Amino acid sequence: MRDFSGDHRWLSINTATVRRQRGQDWPLLQILDACAARGIRAVAPWRDQVAAAGLQATARTLRAHGIALSGYCRGGMFTDADAAEQNLRALDEACALGAPCLVLVVGALPGALAGRAQHKDIAAARAGVHDGIAALLEQARQRGMPLAIEPLHPMYAADRACINTLEQALDVCDALDPARSGALGVAVDVYHVWWDPKLQQQIARAGRERLLAFHVCDWLTPTRDLLNDRGMMGDGVIDIPRIRGWVEGAGYAGFSEVEIFSTQDWWQRDGGAVLDTCIARHRSAV
Length: 286
Ligand code: ZN
Prior knowledge:
By secondary structure, this protein is α/β, with parallel strands linked by helices. It has a single domain (11-285), classed as Divalent-metal-dependent TIM barrel enzymes (TIM Barrel), CATH 3.20.20.150. The protein has helices at 28-37, 47-53, 55-65, 83-96, 122-143, 166-176, 190-193, 199-210, 240-249, 271-285; strands at residues 11-14, 20-21, 24-25, 42-44, 68-69, 72-76, 102-105, 147-149, 184-189, 211-216, 256-258. The protein is globular, with a radius of gyration of 18 Å. The chain starts with 10 loop residues before the first strand and ends with a helix. Zinc ion is lined by residues 150, 187, 189, 215, 259.
């Protein structure tokens, strides 16, 4: 397992972590400048942030700073009516930015995110997701852009993702890419999977070919908001180094991406100070 205590060369910042500080959007290009100034070598931006900054301007700024991507957020939502179109755009943007993978939050019961689920058939939603990934995989292969299925914590099964365990995600991978070609894999986010009794076993099953991204933050007790109360690494109950050990033991050697949504705490602070804390905790708690 790599020693992170001496530097932060393997730190990536998911740019949602500092997207809106003290009520004001922090523009993506300024976030990139602030990361570069701190020697942060990678980021994972969100589509809306890139759209606001401009795709070409984002690509230029990344190149100028020598900042890599650890992933692009996000595609998926396969049960939405406009999923196919949105996902093709996301793929092309990921290619333009040189992302190593497009992260997929796969969606769940149609309409549920808006509070009006159209049906209660989660098995049908899962079948639709399976078919959606199969179709997108063809397009992704043509572009050479790997797809990373991110299993989400079961508390999001109704509205955001009906793939809720690493085992489920890997079953889809094995069905659609039995050759383990590298075109389809998973994003392991400790926030979503830390509780899973099969986690160690399924990380080993994933192996190097399937482990495309590793996301970190912490699980706070109590958790005050289902979506936007993620903790800074070291402030909660997730044994992050243990999980990182399993992931690296399976062959993962990429970035450790900090992804924190925090309305009440980290989004209320100065963005630069948040980045400084991410660096410190990457070294001490990841
Ligand atoms: Zn994540």
